[in-house]
Design a protein that fits this description.
mainly alpha; transmembrane helix; single chain; 14 helices; transmembrane; membrane; 288 residues
Length: 288
Amino acid sequence: MSINDLVALSIVLFVALAAVAEWLSGRSANGARTASDWKMAGLTVTMMVAVQRPLVLLIIGLGLTWLIPGSAGSLAWMQNEYFWPTLIAFFVLEELIHGAGHYFAHCRRPKARWAQAVQAVFKLSHRPHHMSGDDERGQISVVHTFTNGWLWWFVMPNYWFQLLALYLGLTEVFLWGTVVKGLWSAHTHANWNYDLYFHNHQWAWVRKTMWALAHVFTFPTQHHHHHARGKNSAKNVCGSLALFDWLIFDTLAIETARPDVYGWRQSEKEQKSALYRYFNTDLKPYLR
C-alpha cells in the first residue's frame, strides 16, 4: 500500500466510523439524510480513493519527470533536516491554498469573462457539498467531508499541492500533515457541536477563551454555519485554520447556536439521482 493510499484510507475509516455513530444516534433519520445522499457519499469516496488521487499523482509524476528529470524525491532533505518547520509550513500553505480555492467557489461573480467561466466550474462541482437530506430537514454529516462533484478534485489547487509534496519526497510531511488536516476537516463536518458548550459556558473566561480559539481554529459549529441556508453560507471557508477566515478572506462568522436550516435547495434531478449530482456538467446556470 502506498503512502497516498494509506492517507486516504485512514481518513475514510474515521469518516465511516463517525457516519455509523451518526446513524446509530438517529441523526441521519427523519429526512436528515436521503438514499441519494448515501449513494453520493459512496460514489465520491470510491472515486477519490480509486481514481482521483492516483490520477492526480500520476499526472504530477509524468509531468515533472518530463519537465525536470530527476525531480522525484528531490526535497526529501528538507524533512530529514528540518522536519517540524517543513511540516508546519506544509500544513499552513495547504490550508491557505484550500481556503483560497473554496473562497473562490463562494465569492461574488468576477468581472472578467474568463474568470466567470473558471468560477462556474468551481461552483458547479462544489454544489453537491451543500446538499443535505430533504428540504429544510437535512442535517450536516461527516460524509460531507468528501462530497463534491467529480471535477472538484481536479480544480482545487490544494490537492495538487499535497501530492506534489509527496512526489518531491516529503513523504512523512505529507503523511502527518494530510492526515491531521483530513481528520480535523472531518470532525468539523460531523454532526456534533461540542464547541457550543464552551461558547455558552456560565464562566466568562471560558467563553472568551473559546471565542479567541475560534479565531485561530475552525470548530464544528463554525463550519456548520457554512453549510446553513442563510447569511453565513459563504462564511467560514477554511476547514482547519479560521485564522485565514479572520485575517485574509474576511469570512469569519462565530455563532453560539446551531443553524436553523442546513443545505441548499435541490432540484428534482438532484434529489433523485446521485449520478446526476456527481457528473452534472451543465455550467449554463452559472454563466447567465
